[in-house]
């Protein structure tokens, strides 16, 4: 409405252009007051009030846009920092898992080697044929003694006793060997 009174008004695209034009209108208002053109001064004053309102709205809008832009930049920076943080910890966890797997496989290999050494040592040190008990050795000596005296009927009795004790000993040894073999198999399965 008061813009119609000022047909030569320039395009006011920025806040600085509006401020410059307000200054020009203030000078125009002063010159109108001095020349007693009060209607023109009143129109200039109304236009100045409108332009000041527009300037406040424009500055508010620019401030809001600047705020939104800053907020978006902060969000982007935060997201980038968050992604870097996650990437850092993902790499760190992957490295830790790789090292843990290497240590675990190394430990398993070490245990397997120690198990093999101990097993070989036990197989070398433990005789495959057990020593005869003192009872069996005693029976053999009695048998030899009776053979020298030619008492064959008594010898047969001692031979039967010795065989029975040897068979008991052999069956116990077989059971022990089977049990040890099963235990070795279980240990190997556990280590694998």
From TrEMBL:
Residues 41-113 form a coiled coil. Residues 166-192 are annotated as: Disordered. Keywords: Coiled coil. It comes from the Eukaryota. This is Uncharacterized protein. It comes from Paramecium primaurelia.
């Amino acid at each position: 409405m008061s813009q119609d009174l000022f047909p030569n008004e320039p395009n006011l695209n920025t806040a600085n252009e509006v401020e410059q034009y307000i200054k020009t209108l203030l000078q125009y208002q002063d010159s109108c007051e001095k020349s007693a053109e009060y209607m023109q001064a009143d129109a200039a004053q109304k236009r100045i009030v409108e332009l000041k309102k527009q300037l406040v709205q424009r500055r508010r809008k620019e401030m809001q846009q600047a705020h939104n832009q800053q907020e978006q930049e902060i969000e982007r920076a935060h997201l980038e920092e968050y992604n870097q943080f996650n990437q850092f910890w993902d790499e760190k966890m992957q490295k830790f898992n790789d090292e843990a797997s290497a240590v675990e496989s190394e430990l398993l290999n070490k245990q397997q080697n120690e198990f093999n050494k101990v097993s070989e040592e036990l197989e070398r040190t433990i005789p495959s044929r057990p020593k005869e008990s003192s009872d069996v050795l005693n029976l053999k000596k009695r048998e030899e003694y009776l053979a020298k005296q030619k008492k064959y009927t008594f010898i047969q009795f001692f031979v039967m006793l010795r065989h029975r004790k040897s068979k008991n000993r052999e069956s116990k040894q077989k059971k022990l060997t089977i049990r040890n073999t099963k235990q070795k198999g279980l240990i190997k399965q556990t280590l694998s």
